[in-house]
From TrEMBL:
InterPro entries: DUF4395 (IPR025508), UCP030042 (IPR016942)
Protein name: DUF4395 domain-containing protein
One family name in Pfam for this protein: DUF4395
Keywords: Membrane, Transmembrane, Transmembrane helix
Organism: Actinomadura syzygii
Length: 146
C-alpha cells in the first residue's frame, strides 16, 4: 500500500501535541488513548488510523496532489514503535512509576517531533535498517561454501 507522505507527518504533528499534553498533565488515560491510536495504525493499517482519517477527510482535499507516494510499511512500523513507548509510559504513570511514564513519553515525543517538524521518521529509519540487515543475513545464509 502506498500513502501520501504528508499524512504520517500530520499524524506526527497531532501526536506531538497529545504527548506534550501528557507530559504537562501526567495523564495516563490520555497516553492510553494515544496508545490506542498507535495500535489501530499498527494492527489495522494506516488507512484506519484516526489521525490518518482526519487528514484524509479534512486536510488532504485542501492540498495539491502529492508529488510522490511512499510505502506504508515503514510508517506503520513506526506506529508500532510508538505503541511500545506509549504502553510503557502508560504503565509507568498508572503504577506510580512517574519517571518511567515521563521517560517513555519524552522519547515518543522526540520521535514524533522529528517527523512532524523535520520529516525525519525515526521509526521508518529503524524499519529500513532492520530490512537491510535481514536482507544481508538472508543473502549470506544462501551462499553455499565452495
Amino acid at each position: 500500500m502506498q500513502v501520501d507522505p504528508r499524512g504520517p507527518r500530520f499524524a506526527a504533528l497531532v501526536t506531538t501535541v497529545v504527548l506534550v499534553a501528557v507530559l504537562v498533565t501526567g495523564s495516563w488515560a490520555l497516553l492510553a488513548a494515544q496508545a490506542v491510536v498507535f495500535a489501530i495504525a499498527t494492527f489495522l493499517g494506516l488507512r484506519y488510523a484516526p489521525y490518518g482519517l482526519v487528514f484524509k477527510v479534512l486536510v488532504r482535499p485542501r492540498l495539491a496532489p502529492p508529488g510522490e507516494l511512499e510505502d506504508a510499511a515503514p510508517p506503520r512500523f513506526a506506529q508500532g514503535v510508538g505503541l511500545v513507548f506509549a504502553l510503557v509510559g502508560t504503565a509507568g504513570y498508572a503504577t506510580g512509576t512517574t519517571w518511567l511514564g515521563i521517560g517513555a513519553t519524552a522519547l515518543a515525543l522526540a520521535a514524533a517531533f522529528l517527523n512532524a517538524v523535520f520529516g525525519f521518521c525515526l521509526g521508518c529509519e529503524m524499519y529500513l535498517l532492520i530490512r537491510r540487515f535481514t536482507a544481508k543475513k538472508d543473502r549470506s545464509e544462501r551462499k553455499v561454501p565452495a
